[in-house]
Amino acid sequence: MTGEAAGSPRSGSPAAPTIAVVGMGVTGRATADRLTEHGCAVVSVHAPRLGDEAGSFSPGDLTGVDLAVLCQGASHAPLAARLVRAGCPVVSVADQLDDVDDLLALDEVARSNGVALVVGAGMSPGLSGLLARHLAAQVAVVEEIHVAVHGTGGPACARQHHESLGRGGIAWHDGEWLERPGGSGRELCWFPEPVDARDCYRAALADPRLLQRCFPQARRVSARVSANRRDRLTARLPMFIPPRSGGDEGAVRVEVRGAQHDASRETVVIGAAGRVADLAGAVAAATAVEVAARQPPDGVVVLGDTTVDAAAILGRAQRFGVVLQEFTGLARATAW
Amino acid sequence: MKALRRIFVALTMAGAIAGALRFRGKGGVPPQQGGWREVPPPTPGS
């Protein structure tokens, strides 16, 4: 692992923190660009390739860094554990379910070392949690949260999307975790333009795990990902077609159902569309800036939780280029 | 030869049934009214 400075790295201050961005793929570059535009001193760290885990990383490589943002394709948990033990706060854009579970298990380690570990700070999970918290303010009681995602950030994200369709998807259903086959449960989901309607399916996505943590009162939490027939047929096979190196356009859509004080039912929907790497990079950068400035509580932090100022992070992500769109019509009840 | 033909027919039928089950779904209907409205970013400091 090698590090190179973008700008002039210096010991951080709350006004201009020094932030390391690990992984210089499309998401890492988008994150670094937004942090640099914001005035942060950015240390770009070329991550080990997929499967190399923490590689030859030494915490000493990041001396003087206020915070590290993990954007690499490989598993984040091993590297996050080493950084947290070295006393460095971490923001991870991990989206693989197993990796997210491993990161959540680092809560005690982060607490004992007095640092925050933000898990899932990309588009999904990440923006999905912020949007769910935004919608939760519009209903008195949150009963159901349903997330749908379209598109991939970069090659590593595309591989993760491919693998997730071949594995069982989790959903929170009346107090217990259900596991259903990936690629099942087709639902036509309407995303903001220009993505519009896409067939979405169950997959091994991390959103339900993190959203259930943020909204323990919700009876049902689920997530689906868009896919075509080729994606579903080949999900359990290696990828035949190499993913595009630059990623593609995508969208995230969050639907919250609940009850109002007068017992009426309410369904509210919000989404965002754009280049996936840009959306994820904006959220990761906004989270990093807020974490560096406000010092959230020690331990694992999830976007959408009440321990972080979701409105502030979402507002900053919007200023970094995320365009939010609310559905204004009568939302049709889905069968989720 | 007969056994091979039976195996081939059985596999073909199993594949067709599995495919039909895998691809079936309710689909959906487009929203009949409404649309997407941009949510403006909060003004800095608000």
Gyration radius of chain B (Cα, Å) is 26 Å
For the terminal residues of chain A, how far apart are their CA atoms?
44 Å
> What is the tally of beta strands of chain A?
16
Strand content of the residues of chain A, in percent? 25-35%
Class from helix and strand fractions of chain A? alpha/beta
Instruction: Give the low-confidence spans of chain B.
Output: none
Percent of residues in beta strands of chain B = 5-15%
Radius of gyration of chain A: 19 Å
Low-confidence stretches of chain A: 1-13
Order of helices and strands of chain A: EEHEEHEHHEHEHEEEEHEHEEHEHE
Reported for the largest beta sheet of chain A, the result is:
9 strands, mixed
Most extensive interface, residues per chain? A-B, 32 and 21 residues
Arithmetic mean pLDDT of chain B: 76
Detailed description of the structure:
The complex is a heterodimer of chains A (about 325) and B (about 45). Chain A is of the alpha/beta class and about 325 residues long. Chain A folds into 2 domains: about 160 residues, 3-Layer(aba) Sandwich (Rossmann fold), CATH 3.40.50.720; about 160 residues, 2-Layer Sandwich (Dihydrodipicolinate Reductase, domain 2). Chain A contains 10 helices and 16 strands. In chain A, the strands form 2 sheets. In chain A, strands 7, 8, 9, 10, 11, 12, 13, 14 and 16 form a 9-stranded mixed beta sheet that branches. In chain A, a hairpin with a 2-residue loop joins strand 8 and strand 9. Chain A starts with a strand and ends in a 9-residue tail after the last strand. Chain B has about 45 residues and is mostly helical. Chain B is built from 1 helix and 1 strand, in the order H-E. The longest helix of chain B is centred in the N-terminal third of the chain and has 22 residues. The radius of gyration of chain B is 26 Å and the shape is rod-shaped. The termini of chain B are far apart. The model of chain B has no long low-confidence stretch (mean pLDDT about 75). The chains are: A alpha/beta (about 325), B mainly alpha (about 45). Strand 16 of chain A pairs antiparallel with strand 1 of chain B.
